[in-house]
Amino acid sequence: MWDAREVTTGGLDAEALAAGGLEWLLDTARAEGPGLAWAAAAGSGESDPSLYSGGAGIVITLLEAHRHFRDDRFADAALRGSRAIAAAVDDWDIRSLYFGLTGMAFALRAVGRLLGDTAADRAADRALEVVRSRFDGERWGDQSELLGGNAGIALGAIAAGDPGLAVLAVTPYLRTSEPTAGGVHWEVRSGTPARFHHISHGTLGIVLALAAVGEAAGRPDLTRLALAGAADVVSRNEAGPSGFQVPHSDPQHKPERTERYSFGWCHGPAGDAQVFRLLGAVTGDPAWPALADRCWRTVTGSGLPRRIRPGFWDNNGRCCGSAGVLALACDRHAESRGDLEFATVLAGDLAARATVDATGVRWSNEEHRVTPSTLPPRAGWAMGNAGIIRELLRFARATAATGPSYAVTWPDHPAARLARARGHRS
Fold first, then answer.
1. pTM value?
2. φ/ψ of residue 155, rounded to 5
3. Average pLDDT of 49-57?
């Protein structure tokens, strides 16, 4: 049983923090028939089954908790969460990985595999059938990148056991790539003149999908296109030969709201490094892990997790905050037995920013453009507690040397593999 005193009096205890976060997650769930559901934001009247901010991402964290703690409460909650996701399949109009049916199918398949639930497996099949039926030959909507479009659907399809759908999703990239001075890139949203460079909405997210599908399907043409896309982004590096920093987009998208340089998973080198990790594993070329090293030097030298100025580092979450950087830190430890010094800094900062009371542990984020700037805590993966909890549990296993892998491999987060080049230290 979780005890708040384990957090408030014991300093950094990542496992106790995660346990408290799980209590808060369970407390914020609401019953929907035989299922459990969560809202995207506090006070919202509508349940959210998505991977990004709702039930699908939370279910993956509950499966993680079940494996970590061997507590059947979390398996039961994951199973009930899958029931609510399955009930939403027929009425959910979005098809993407992070906001739609592909991410829901991924979570349902994970429940089927880990808990042996055939109903979840059948619902995953149904969701993927709907996704396939809505393909127009080019894309599924205005977006064609990782969060909202083809790249994410391809990665989610691989994770959910549908390689045919994955190939279908990435094939249009072969004919829609745009040549650049450095390689190729793509329009990622219909009618948007900006070209985005990073993993969440840009070229590197497409590169990740092409490389993953190329490896899974034995398609060297997809791998070659992935390398051309990566070359374009590498050519834009502005941090010199020892670092890696590429602008958010060119021309700059919404410069009045968006900083030109970021450091997290979504639009910064913490996410870029994940793509370079996969390219290194797929090709065996040591230049890619070397680029991941350069990303890491830029991240660790940026000043985060300190809040240097409003808007610089206001997010604790997995998408663009400290939890996403913690994931990369633990990857590096798993692949090369690197130290956990910076990972411990990140986990300590998460501990310092946690709200702890009798209901559990939770985290808020900051939005410097609104008043009050402290946002209500959220439950989901991207900007909420589920994503933080999952990374804290992995960090706890890494520090205890009990294995830093996950119960469920996330679709766009390459599993840790030992570097092929024995002398390379990532």
1. 0.95
2. -65, -40
3. 98
